[in-house]
């Protein structure tokens, strides 16, 4: 059970990292305009 919890936590963190990267790209594009 512990490993399953760690895996799901990793997936959530990866998802947030992707969202943060997308947000950063949006901000950079807006600054360039």
In brief:
The protein is mainly α. The chain is built from one helix and no strands.
What does this protein structure show overall?
With 33 residues, this protein is an all-alpha fold. The protein is built from one helix and no strands.
Percent in strands: under 5%
Helix amount = over 70%
Please mark out the parts with pLDDT under 50 across 5 or more consecutive residues, or reply none: none
Overall pLDDT: 93
What is the CA-atom radius of gyration, in angstroms? 15 Å
How does the major sheet shape up?
none
What gross morphology would you assign?
A: rod-shaped
Secondary structure tally: strands: 0
Termini separation (Å)?
Answer: 49 Å
User: Structural class, judged by helices and strands?
Assistant: mainly alpha
What is the element string, with H for helices and E for strands? H
Number of helices: 1
Any descriptors?
33 residues; mainly alpha; 0% strand; rod-shaped
Write the layout of secondary structure elements.
Blueprint: H1 2-32
């Amino acid at each position: 059970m512990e490993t399953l919890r760690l895996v799901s936590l990793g997936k959530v963190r990866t998802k947030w990292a992707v969202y943060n990267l997308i947000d950063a790209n949006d901000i950079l594009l807006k600054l360039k305009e």
